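Posting for a labmate who doesn't have an account.
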Amino acid sequence: MYDEFTHYYAEFLDGTYDCVDRIVLNGYFWLGQSPGGFRTWWRRLYGSDDNLDNAHLMRMAGRLSRRGRAFAKKHGIPVLDCLRSERKHELAQKHLPVDPNVIGVFLILVNRAPAPVWDVQHNKNGVIRNIARKNPQSWVNHYSFHIIDPEWGHLTIKLCGHPPFNARIILNGHEYVAQQAKKTGIDFTKIGNCFTSISDVASLAHIADTLCSENTIGRLCEVCDRWIYSACLCFALDLADQENSGFWYSYSVYQSEYSRNLLFTRGTELEQVFQGLIDRTRSRLDVKTLKTILGTKRRPFHRQGRKPPREEVVVERPAYDLTVFKIHFGKITAKCYTKGERVLRIEIIVHNARVFPCGRSLDRFPEITMQLRSILNRFLDAAGQSNKTCTCRSLQAQAWAETQKYKSY
């Protein structure tokens, strides 16, 4: 078994599987991240930097908007301008294609968000005097391309409309596992991003484990390169301009989620276990224990101007029949909640992979995943120990009660 908690309740389970959930990658053109590098790339693109000014940068952003909207209109792809308060993923769910054979872009969402934008300053003679980031950051249009991929299912590429066109790629491991399970003939029922019924749990768990291997690095690079150049960046830079100027993306891990899903035989048993987990675990977690579980225990230090990490244990009830148990500590969150009638999910979320000492580049993805798995195991081991402690105490209380009954005689 994976951990003490899973082992403790093994007799009530039909099976269990681990899976990487949400994966968020940052895509960036490394040469365009510094003033000198950006100027060098501009010279490669146009032959000189005589036309490098804020007006031409705005024109390039306008070109992406015009071409993208024209392409969408021609192919019948909806383009929606979103407000800041709107839930983008909920809009995307409403526009998911019904045809299972659809491949490619099916929706484009436009919203404004702050982004690092270059500000080119000239002297009186028209010579470039300085190139620097605008401070504070400017609010510019971002274009979220929602795509159906044959290997990864629904994914999103959010592209900044201004050069150097920084991007954010959002994928889901359950979508990948679902696509691979269909190819191997595994029957399953899926609600959201969770499998609630599986014909062959062991085979599906084996497919999910492949996301933790070194080969996942190549798969992630492949799916990002498959769409970001030909379906997103092409509206600002033609494929020929991309090649001639040497524009190519590097990727790093921004956020990641790792979950353990316990498939119970009966829903009533699941509810009892979950409520017991909340009651026992919440009362025994303190800051020292959280630091040990989340792997953030180190020598005390304080940096001036830096806020202390967030420390919070909460129980949320966003819906009538849904309870979510959350533990926040800095950039790491542990969550426990039910999916469907028989699935208990425990997941660990890193909101910024910078907190891990292994680095954030894409080739470190397996190490980041192992870090999340270790945190998950420590959390469930602590939960399992709480169950054993409560069981021992209840047995001692029962024995003491029996002793008092015989004494009364």
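Reply:
Got it, the structure tokens are right above this. Residues 30-165+219-248 form one domain.
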